[in-house]
Structures are given as structure tokens and as C-alpha cells.
Amino acid sequence: MSGLTPGFQGRRRIESDRVPPGQYLTEDFPVLSAGPTPSIDIAEWTFTVVAETGERHAWDWDQFAALAQETRTVDIHCVTRWSKLDTTWRGVSVDTLLAEVETAADFAVVHSFDGYTTNVPLDDIIDGQAWVVTEYEGEPLAAEHGGPARFLLPHLYFWKSAKWVSGITLHDEDNPGFWERAGYHDYGDPWLEQRYQSGW
């Protein structure tokens, strides 16, 4: 896929207990994508959760907007080495989306409208750790940042926070996503600098 923006160079590193090793702080919000920004009509937008049994739960835009909404302020960390502190988002907790789902799965795959996927352990997206967000800093989420809705998983590198999100599938086994199959780390903990698979 074309259009990937390379990492940034020459930024001043900041010593902080909120900035992982090898990261620099930015006041901007860099736009990094593996391809073109899709155009998504909210009249046709749906979000679907599919359990490992095939059980499906789906919400259209209005149904999703009617779910309990949460506002969270979090720090985010990109694998290209920028970090941005105190970003504020509003959306629906994954706990809310999974409330009626019966599952014994250990893993999840997050899916996007452009075909992008990323994998995460199920334990990392429950208990108030992840959201599907539709607002950033009090405004509807811009398309270049993943609007109308993106995944938000702030404790892992930001490629795990998939843009243009369309659903979550639950699995008994791990299923690497787009960047993980391309050599990025399967988990992606910024505090351990888990940027790439071993050997990179």
C-alpha cells in the first residue's frame, strides 16, 4: 500500500515519566496512514462485533450514538517516535460493546473500512482500557484522524488504534493484522519499545 509517511527525525527527546523511551513530544497531531483516506457516509456506517461462535451484534450510527458515551483524556504514542500528551476523546467503551456478547475468546481483531486490521489480546481492550471514539477535543473526529470513528487503545503504540473502524471479531487464537504481518511487533508496548518483531 502506498502513502505511508516516514518517521520524523531531529526532535528533542524529553525526560518524563509520561514519555516512553525513544519518543519525542509533539504539539501537532501527525497524520500517518498506510493508504488514502476513505470517504465513509455515516448513513451507511455500521459497527459490528462478531464472537468466535459467529454471534453478531451490530449498531448503525444512530444506535451507536445512543449508547453510553465516555470522555477520556489520555497520552498517545506512535511507533514513528512521537508522543502527544493529554489528548481528549469521546466515544463508547469496548466494555459497553461487549456487554451482551458471550465469549470465551482470548484475542480480538479490529477491522477498518479500508481493509486494515490489527490484533490485540482481549484482556487489553476490556476493563476500561479501550474505546470506539467519534470525537476528538470536543469536535467530530476528522477523517484524516480516523473519522467518523476510530479505535482508541492508548497503552499500546498508536497503530493498534485503528482508524475508520468498522468492527471487532473475537478469536480463540492470535491472528496478526496488517502491520504485524509486515514485521511490526505483535503486541506493541511503547514502554518496552516493542516496535518490530525480533531481528529487526
UniProtKB/TrEMBL annotation:
| Domain of life the protein comes from | Bacteria
InterPro entries membership: OxRdtase_Mopterin-bd_dom (IPR000572), OxRdtase_Mopterin-bd_sf (IPR036374)
Annotated region Disordered: the residues are: 1-22
Question: What are the residue boundaries of the Oxidoreductase molybdopterin-binding domain, all occurrences included?
Answer: 35-179
Protein name stated in the entry: Sulfite oxidase-like oxidoreductase
